[in-house]
Design goal:
With about 80 residues, the protein is α+β, with helices and mostly antiparallel strands. It has three helices and three strands; from the N terminus they run αββααβ. The chain has a three-stranded mixed sheet with strand order 1-2-3. A hairpin with a 2-residue loop joins strand 1 and strand 2 (about 45-50). The model has no long low-confidence stretch (mean pLDDT about 90).
Length: about 80
């Protein structure tokens, strides 16, 4: 039986959430955190919180930290965007 797109998407989301959980302690050390918001059209949407929300290095955290780490295990991801809600 073939997997549905929804099942594949849910598996991808679960992988992304697991990866974010492994990264949280590093962000927490600097007083920040990350919250998973959504995964849509190969883009991961997160919300940086705490000290990370206003940090001048948040773009670097997104690009070189979150994106690169997620991309290693979930190669279909094409980007990570920090959303402000």
């Amino acid at each position: 039986m073939a997997k549905t797109k929804e099942v594949d998407n849910n598996e991808t989301i679960n992988k992304i959430k697991e990866i974010l959980e492994t990264l949280k302690p590093y962000l927490n050390m600097d007083g920040g955190d990350v919250e998973f918001i959504d995964y849509k059209d190969k883009i991961v949407y997160v919300k940086l919180t705490g000290a990370c929300a206003a940090c001048m290095f948040s773009d670097e955290t997104i690009k070189n930290g979150l994106y690169e780490t997620i991309k290693m295990d979930v190669p279909e991801v094409e980007g990570v965007i920090n959303v402000t809600i």
